[in-house]
Write a structure and sequence with these properties.
Elements: E1 14-17, E2 20-29, H1 34-50, E3 60-63, E4 68-75, H2 80-84, H3 88-100, E5 101-104, E6 120-122
Antiparallel strand pairs: 1-2, 2-4, 2-5, 3-4, 3-6
Helix pairs in contact: 1-3
Amino acid sequence: MYPSKSALIGGPSVYRHPMGMIAIGAYRVHEGRQELFLEALRQDLVTMRDEGLISDWPAMILRAGDDVFLQLVEWADEDAPARSTNNQRVMAIWTKKRTLADYLSLAEVPGADRLFPSFEEIPSK
């Protein structure tokens, strides 16, 4: 079930719905590192799910241009974002992701300034 317009809070990158909180990560991949980065994103999803940090909500990986990707996840609970930064397995993957891409704000994502932006879905498995 997707949240209603009235359920949106916290700005453009986070909103609440009855099941939890959705987070959006945005990344610009370094040249020639796309496949390694996508592997890291997929491993990130598996690890965060294994560690109980994200829910079973179907996480998404989206392409926003040639070298920009979005990752959408639902945190398992309100404490999960803080717990993730203390998790060695998760931090190892996040450190690897930083060697492969730069983190972006949503304002830096190509096309995000349009009404109802659309992005290509990339298989997350």
